[in-house]
Fold:
Amino acid sequence: MQKDSFSKFKALVKKSNNIVIVTHFNPDGDAMGSSLALYNYLVKTDKKVTVITPNDYPEFLHWLAGNKKVVEYSKQPKKAATLVANSDLIFTLDFNNYSRLEGLGQLLQSSTAKKVIIDHHQQPDNYADLYYHDVKACSTCELVYEFIVGLGGKKLIDKHIAACLYTGIMTDTGSFRFDSVTPKTHLILADLLSTGLKPSDIHTSIYDTYSESRVKLLGYCLTEKMVVIPELQTAYISLSEKELKRFNHQKGDTEGIVNYPFSIKGITFCAFFSEGDGKIKISFRSKGKFDVNQFARKHFNGGGHINAAGGRSNVNDLQKTINEFLNLLPTYKKDILKK
Ligand SMILES: [Mn+2]
Structure:
C-alpha cells in the first residue's frame, strides 16, 4: 500500500488547471466508473478536466455521466495529444504501467505534467509523483471514493457520481461476491445508495444488455468449447476469430465468459483464450491461493491481480497457445490445488 497524504493531493489539485484522466486499454466498468466519477467531481470544483481512453469501450458503459465528453485516443489521436501536452496534472486510473495504454503511453511518457496513480493492481511502476495505491482495495472506484472524501468533496458526491462508483465496485467484485469485498466496501456502497441511486437500474444497465447473438455465443462456449480437467481443478474455453465472427462478435461480448466454469463444483482455475487481429488474448481467473498474476506475468506477457489477470500469447496461433498452457499446468498442480 502506498498512499500519499491528502495535504499533498490537495495542494497538487489546487494548483492544477488542466487535468487529464487516463485509464487502461479496453476500459472496463471500474476503469470508466472511476475515471468518470473523478471527472464529474473535478468538474464540480470548476476544474478543466478531460477523460482520455486508449480505445473504445462497451456500450453498456455509455450511460455513465460524462461519457459524451470522453476522448478516445484511437479515434482522436491529435486531440488527445494536444490535451496531454497542455495538461499540468494527469491522473492514471485502474492501471499502473504505461504498457497498458498502447500508443497513448508514449504521449504520457513525454509529458511533463505531474502524474498521480490511483489503482489497486499489483506492482505499480514508478512514473507517478503521487500515489493512492492499495492492492487490497476491491476496485479503483473504492479508492476514488476515498480520494474524493479525502479531498473534502463528500458533499459533492451526487447520484451521478455515485452511480459511476457503484458500477466499478459492482463489476470488479463480481457483484459484491469476491474476497476483496470488505465491511468498508459495504459502508461505501451504503453511502452511495443514500444519494438516491437505484441499484436495480445499474444492474440492468450493465448486465441485462446482451444481444441475442451474445447469449448464443455463451451457450456455444459452454456446450461446445468448454474443456474441464477435473484432476487439475481447471477449465478453459477458447474462441477463434472465425467462431467470434459466426456469432457477430461485438466488443465486450466475451467479457465474463471466463468465469462460467467456476459454477462447476471443484473448479478453481479458469482460462479464456480468444483470437483477434492476429493476436491471442488470454484471461485467467482463480479461486483461492493460486496467483494468476504471477502466472500471467511469467508465461503470457501479462499480469493483474492474484485471482484475475490477463495476458497475451508469445505465438499468434490459438492451438499452440493452448498447448503451451496445457504443458504448464502439471508444474502448477500443487499451487492450483492449494486451498
Ligand atoms: Mn479495477
Observations:
- The two ends are 25 Å apart (CA to CA).
- The chain has 13 helices and 13 strands.
- The mean pLDDT is 96.
- The chain has two domains: 2-207, 212-337.
